[in-house]
Amino acid sequence: MDTIIRGGTVVTGGTEATIDVGIRDGLVVQLGGEMTAPSEIDATGHYVLPGGIDAHVHLTPAGPGLYSWTDDFTVGTRAAAAGGITTVGNMAFPHGGQPMAEGVARDVADAEANAVVDWFLHPVLMNPDEAEVASIEALAAA
Questions:
Q1: In this structure, are residues 93 and 126 in contact, taking their beta carbons and an 8 Å threshold?
Q2: Cα dihedral 80, 83, 86, 89 in deg (nearest 10)
Q3: Looking at residue 96, what is its pLDDT?
Q4: Positive or negative, the Cα torsion across 43, 5, 116, 81?
Q5: Is 102 helix (H, G, I), strand (E, B) or coil?
Q6: Terminal CA-CA length for the chain
Q7: Which residues in the chain show pLDDT less than 50?
Q8: How far apart are CA 39 and CA 22, in angstroms?
Q9: For the CA atoms of 75, 76, 82, 84, what is the dihedral angle to 10 degrees?
Q10: What is the CB neighbour count within 10 angstroms for residue 100?
Q11: What is the pLDDT of residue 66?
């Protein structure tokens, strides 16, 4: 383990128990049992909860075209983290006539540079012409 969260009340989908949590490479890999790690967090008297997932957010930086939002990945993911959200799913709208791939590339660059939580993207098909429909397979693979 890299880190162990000790003595907290762990809450999962419908249960709660005082149990240690083992973390390796940023992932929970063990609940309870014997474990050691160079780093420990004393959670005695605290709840240990899984992070929330908000699968529908709008974090597109302002730009030309119909769809521009107030929040980008810098502001929006910090607000999410403050509220216990550890993963956001952003609606990647292309700006004014851009293909989906350009909207996705813009949001990937913003997220990679600024996000403080995990993220994934939902490309938005604004212009269902032949080229855009043909690009869906490559976007899904990416």
A1: yes
A2: -40
A3: 78
A4: negative
A5: helix
A6: 31
A7: none
A8: 10
A9: -160
A10: 22
A11: 56
Strands 3-6 and 39-42: parallel
Both structure tokens of 84: 């216990």
The gap from C-alpha 100 to its chain's centroid, in whole angstroms, comes to 20
pLDDT on residue 62: 62
Asked if residues 139 and 106 have their Cβ atoms less than 8 Å apart, the reply is no
Sheet containing 85-92: give its strands across: 52-57, 85-92, 118-123
Phi and psi dihedrals of 104, rounded to 5? -65, -45
The string of DSSP letters for 65-82 reads SS---S--HHHHHHHHHH
- DSSP label of 60: P
Q: How many CB atoms lie within 10 A of CB 133?
A: 12
The 3-state DSSP class for residue 29 equals strand
Q: What is the pTM of this model?
A: 0.69
Q: Which two tokens stand for residue 50?
A: 């899984």
User: d(Cα 97, Cα 105) in Å, to the nearest integer?
Assistant: 15
d(CA 50, CA 16): 12
Tokens for 25? Answer: 């490479």
What is the C-alpha to C-alpha distance for residues 75 and 71, in angstroms, rounded to an integer?
6
